[in-house]
Design goal:
By secondary structure, the chain is of the alpha+beta class. The protein has two helices and five strands; from the N terminus they run βαββαββ. The chain folds into two domains: 50 residues, no CATH class; 31 residues, no CATH class.
């Protein structure tokens, strides 16, 4: 299930919970939340960054710390050990 982010449309009338924004775990088929669950002020769904996973360098670090080695091909039958 995806996590959606919501924030109050009118920060002056909102509580601290929805003025800063909150996350809600929902099914994709669930309708969007229209009001703050704590104070009842209208809220809107925010557009958030997509999660694309760890960076390639992060994977290299994890593999090296687990004891794996990375080799780069230099020529025919020649390899250089990166880690």
């Amino acid at each position: 299930m995806p996590i959606y982010e919501y924030q109050a449309r009118d920060a002056a009338k909102s509580c601290e919970y929805c003025s800063k924004g909150f996350e809600q775990l929902q099914k994709m088929s669930d309708p969007p939340i229209e009001k703050c669950p704590k104070c009842g002020v209208p809220v809107g769904k925010l557009i958030s960054a997509a999660s694309v996973g760890p960076s390639k360098s992060g994977l290299d670090h994890r593999a090296a710390s687990a004891g794996f080695h990375k080799l780069t091909k230099l020529g025919k039958g020649e390899y250089e050990k990166k880690y």
